[in-house]
Amino acid sequence: MIRRRLRRLSLALGAFAALGLGSAPALADNDVGCGIGTNLMKGREGLLYHVLASCTNAYTFQSVSLTFNMFGCDSTGKVTADAELRKFAAANLDQLARDMARGEGETLGAFAHLLQVPAEQQGALGAFTQAHFVDLFPNDAVTSNEMIDAFYRLLAEPSQG
Amino acid sequence: MRRRAFLILLLALAPAAGAPSRGEDLLGRAEVLGLARHPTWEALLHAGPGRFGLGRESEIPGGRFFLAEEGQSDPAAELEATLGALLAAPTEGDGAAHCRFPARARWLARELGVPEERLAPAPCPALDEWRSGLAPRGITLIFPEAFMNNPASMFGHTLLRLDVADPKDPRNLLAYAIDFTANTDGDAGPVYLAKGALGLYPGYFGVNPYYRKLELYGDWQNRDIWEYPLDLSAGEVELVLLHLWELDDVAIPYYFFRQNCSYQLIRLLAVARPELDLRHGFPLGVIPVDTVRDVLAEIGLAGEVRYRPSPAAELRTLLGTLSAEDRRLALALSRGEIEPDDARVAGRGPEERGALLGAAYEALKYAFLQGEVEEDVSRERSYRLLVARSRAARGGTPEVPRPAVRPEEGHGTALLAVGGGVEDDEGYVELRLRPSLHGPLDPEAGFPGDSSIGFLDTRLRWFPESGRVRLEELVLVELQSNTPRDDFFRPLSWGLDTGFRTRLFPEEDGELDRDLVWRTGGSLGFTFAPGRGPLSVYALADARLEVGSGFDHGWAFGPGGELGLELRVPGDRWQARLFGRGTRFVLGDRQTHLSAGLGQRVTLTRRTAAVAEVGVEYYRGESWLDASVSLQWTF
Fold it and tell me: Is this prediction's ipTM beyond 0.85?
């Protein structure tokens, strides 16, 4: 039963990969995550900041423009689905790893949406990532791009049995 | 001027002769309709009463945001210039007036009753691409609350999210959030403070992925986050979005206390709902939670409010579901004292193992973010825990119970109290005003417990017998955090305060002399709340500096301590707080000062409470009593 659901999921995802998005080169973006357990950097500042600075621009990633920090864009400025996926995974690697290991969670839900997995298949995606956690994260230094490449490779493999 | 009025009269009397086709006709109609004074036009220009309440003036300094030379101070001239630009020979592309000011164009077309193509004749490629990328289905107001053990964060923060799906859908992680931030160029300390208070920093609206914001407020800062889906029509959402485009790269002076981020979000939403105004809280400042109240009062909710617990709240829940034995195991796993293949863990069923390893992983992440674990240690151990977790049961993550009272349902941010009492042997009437925010004796509902912050807390006393009026206290700022410790969360309690207070100085003849002193102090200690029940006890060590003419040498400094006990029952309707403190001033005027007191509060309604306080003080060989009762009201 599970296996059949997984196969259906693989087909759905395979279609996504077949669009050529799965093999898109990694972005020129350096924002690729830096391994589980470290991705969430410390965002702690001095006391004074919290008293009066609830809205000052203390963080480098915040833009001062409406469009500057938007969308994963390729060189032509066009948004690609793969770029969005990679950008999201890079920024959420810790939460994603956690959700993939436990087979559920909001971050995995958003990841599934970026993969265009239909809602009713998301449970199967959770089971898939949990079963293949070690394949997706073969060691503790895996970057988000390596994880996604491994994910695409797993999908391309025929389901065993 | 008189000719213009005459013209308006003439136009008003003239029968509406079909759709006006010439620019002057539209301008005339705009004048007849009084559009330049229309609240939506003023919202589009960010205009309000000018200096000293004279005229109308925009908060945005002149520049590219205005088409008329005097646009900042003359909404009518700006309207004329806008209409003129919109009706000028059509230009193509992003530079056209209707592409720079799409919200103005849309609103003017609607009000003037002309087809939108009349004022917006050609497509705007950049704007259209931006809009289709955002494609909001609705707007949600986001309120990150204070975070644990940091009263300085208690004012919270607000942003808007452009929803891409139903408010509860995980796809909204991918939505974009709008906020207003000041660019401080890395200034810090007094420079930063002064420039922020004086409005010397430029602020800009920004759009960032919502998950980035969650990372900042949720994961890094451990704030609970509340999401309020707003009841705005598709047309209203569109107008807000189009106006946001008009604000791209427009610098707006940023002020800490009033024209801050929360205020600017209100101004942005006012384009859709010009009646939206700041009605809650003390008028001289804008506090985020008050703007939540304002927005909900005017716009209302489109659906259920979502509570997004902080990682600390999740961890507390996870640990709470475990037995004492399992809790110890989970913490031992998170500290690396035992490995996931330990028989006590590996021997469990898949569900129990999942719960243990899940809690251990979250505990480790928390410790890492607290700076208690090195990066490489965290990485390696997290990985081993997750691999083991992936071999346990799927799912089973417990839901964090939602606080019974939402932040905007708590007491008002400003407090006014009237009371009477006796000091030594003289009666007084006391008036107290605290513009913000939350004191140790206030109802906790809607506020993160265990923390308090007060600004400009002012007490005036009038002694009818002698007719004297005295400033009893002016607390400039006061912070106290008494977060209880347990076997995992081990925060230090701490406090900081500075301000003026009238001190009683016993004279040789036994009379009490009264002098205003400036005092400042800091404290550090522990709080325990057995089983997180209604009772908590705390112990603090502190150091104090007091300066005033009543002291020998004019000042006194010394270490001290405070012990206290706090009880809140039932449902926080009644609270009692008992404390004893002492300071041994060892420098300057060397004396010992001792005091003890009992404060009690009974909540009457959401906004009102009765407070009774009694205290004794001992100084320079004399002791005296102060007792009072008061009624307080928050707004």
Answer: no
